[in-house]
Amino acid sequence: MLAYALRRVLISVPILIASTFVVFVITALSKSPISELRAKNPPPPERTIELERQRLNLDQPLLERYWNWLLGLFRGDFGPSVQSRMDIGAEVVDRFLVTFRLIGLAMLVALILAIIVGVISAVRQYSGVDYTSTFLGFLFLSLPSFWFAILLKQAGISFNNAVGSQVLFTIGDSSVYVTGGTWAEFTDILGHMVLPTISLALLSFAAWSRFQRASMLEVLNSDYVRLARAKGLRRGTVMRKHALRTALIPLTTVTALDLGAIISGAVVTEKVFQWQGAGTFLLDAISNSDVYAVQAWLLVSATFIILFNLAADLLYGVLDPRIRYA
Amino acid sequence: MPDATETQQSSPLTGQPSETSPAGQPEREFTVPERSQTQMILRRFFQHKLAVASLFVLLGVVLLAFVGGALWKYSYVDITADESVPPSWEHPFGTDAVGHDSFAQVLRGTQLSLGVAVLVALFSTVVGTVWGSIAGYYRGWLDTVMMRIADLVLTLPLLAVAAVLGHNVGGSWWLIAVVIAGLYWAYVARVARGVVLSLREKEFIEASKALGASDMRIILRHLVPNSLGAVIVNATILVAIAILIETALSFLGFGVRPPDTSLGLLVSNAQTAVSTRPWLFYFPGLFIIIIALTINFIGDGLRDAFDPKQTKVRE
Question: What is the pLDDT, as a whole number, of residue B279?
């Protein structure tokens, strides 16, 4: 298994490098940050512009710029940002820590709910619960996430007005100034997370509960479950020990594959709730044509996606004894 | 999945109408009229009430957007004298702070969002299916190279790269469609490859190879018709996904740009006015939901119609 994991990581490296190259070319071809500097009124002196060009490595040819960026990574240097005071490496780590908080909780909530709802609607197929959850699943899959997030934000504001105090926070990832020690800080962060988590978890929940239902149905209709029942095992025992265990396995793969979509979803959620996370970092970087910042974002999220998929594949081998990694 | 003989009978290229029994077979004893594959699929689809209802609703929305949008007294760029008025007979969806008629804007947004979505579905389905089928059919090094390229596209987070590209190419709607399709075709290629991989091992393919059929004939006459079901279902659902991607992209400011408008842009403009001018926020969102929801239902109905095995529970 270790050999398999190592081989997978080694295969991922060239794919990762190739994808950063593609994005580097795409971003570098966009509007140059120098043209914005030139458009300033009064125009800065030619010397300043030339220095800025050199600082951003814009005087080098494209391939050389990419190569130097790649070499710089090994020294922990993510390259210069358009915003001259920003250290991209430190900034991107800070931002992703905030975002992972959101993504982690949202995935956990979505997974737990999806398993419960999926299993219940499979066991009670064609019941009222099943039809309701199927309809809700379709509805959530068709909801534009940004629209729903704004709606939630509005609901949060109304809720706060009704209660008369700020219980649910609708702006930012945490308060700037909190008094009262660690516990107060913790509840403050949690209060900020409630609404964004709901909005991000909903879409994955819809897709995963549909998937869990299908996978559970397939298992329930299989011969070995019928045999277990025919042997005289109790329904509850068959469900828990025989059916559910098998039916949970495919969900690991789907969860890992959906991570990219969840990271994209977090970009939208952060924008609506004005979080200082990785999503808004990316949006600012794109607007500023900040090539190295976009690269840093891509590198971290792509690495994360690849590692997560690897973990899911290894977990699959643990859960399903039929699979052996040679 | 239909088997090969059925497909051949129903195909117009054989020159034989499907009602008559093919030569060389014994006379049929049954009086039930024979149905072609297409007829059976259509019958099954029309039995799916929710899907049929969705089809009518969607057709209504499309007609409203394209015919209604052309006939409506205001255009989406018109600035009327009424500012920030709530919905009325004069302005069914109200107006914004500048005086734009919101109904005209929502119809225009629907036109563009639908246009982008259909184009995305079309592009990525054609490219993805051809790509995946060739890789799956020929296997070997060609498969490896083609699928590694697809994998490369799949590691790029779609919305992020679409935003970078959207920022570069500007706000023209068909370029946005090309950008999204340029990133989405790899998903379709994966699905198509999977279908072809399982089909190519089937006996009827082996049989036609033994009979001396060329690769071209096998692909066009056997693989394509047999994978058509999966491809059509996928393409339908893709339209719903593309609508959501395009609106999200426009919402973030990297999709369709003013003075033109899209449903996502309308929601984005209205996000600070949810409580003061709610009509500006609710109507475009409602249109996105209606379109995506009906397409998802139609896709579900099509899936059942093409592959009845999937929903049938073994007794």
Answer: 82
Residue A100 within a domain = yes
Cα A127–chain centre separation: 34
**Residue A220 burial by CB count (10 A; 0-12/13-18/19+): exposed, middle or buried?**
buried
Chain CA centroid to CA B61, Å: 16
d(CA A53, CA A67) in angstroms, rounded, equals 18
Structure-token match 């929502």, residue found: B106
Taking an 8 Å cut-off on Cβ atoms, the answer to whether B158 and A302 are in contact is: no
Asked if residue A69 is part of any domain, the answer here is: no
Closest CA to A12 of B149, B155, B103: B155
> For residue A113, is it within any domain?
yes
Q: How close A145 gets to chain B, by Cα (Å)?
A: 8
Q: Which whole-number Å values give the CA distances from A241 to A122, A212, A225, A235, B151, in the listed order?
A: 16, 16, 10, 10, 37
Residue A262 lies in a domain: yes
Indicate if the pLDDT at residue B4 is higher than 50. no
CA B237 to chain A, closest CA, distance in angstroms equals 11
Say whether residue A286 is in contact with chain B using an 8 A CB cutoff: yes
- Dist. CA B295–CA B158, nearest whole Å: 21
B182 at A interface, C-beta within 8 A: no
| A-to-B residue pairs, Cβ atoms closer than 8 angstroms | 125
Residue contact A154–B275, C-beta within 8 A: yes
Q: What is the pLDDT along chain A (326 residues), one digit of tens a residue?
A: 778 788 878 888 888 888 888 888 888 877 677 777 777 777 777 777 777 777 777 777 888 888 888 888 888 777 788 777 778 888 888 899 989 999 999 999 999 999 999 999 998 888 888 889 988 988 998 889 889 999 888 888 888 888 877 777 777 777 767 777 778 778 888 888 888 999 999 888 998 998 999 899 989 888 999 999 899 999 888 888 888 888 888 888 888 888 888 988 899 999 998 888 888 899 988 888 888 888 889 888 888 888 888 888 888 777 777 766 65
d(CA B39, nearest CA chain A) in Å: 28
Report the CATH number at residue A112: 1.10.3720.10
CB distance from B240 to chain A under 8 Å? yes
Please report the domains of chain B, with CATH numbers, ordered by start residue: 49-306 (1.10.3720.10)
Distance CA A149, CA A273 (A): 8
Q: What phi and psi, each to the nearest 5 degrees, are found at residue A311? A: -60, -40
Please give the single-letter amino acid code of residue A303.
T
Structural domain boundaries, residue A29: 2-36+93-324
Domain count, chain A: 1
Per residue in A269-314, pLDDT tens? 999 988 888 888 999 888 888 888 888 898 888 888 888 888 888 8
Residue B289 and residue A142: Cβ atoms within 8 Å? Answer: yes
Report the residue from A31, A154, A305 with minimal CB separation from B155.
A305
Task: Name the minimum distance, in Å, from the CA of B154 to any CA of chain A.
Answer: 9
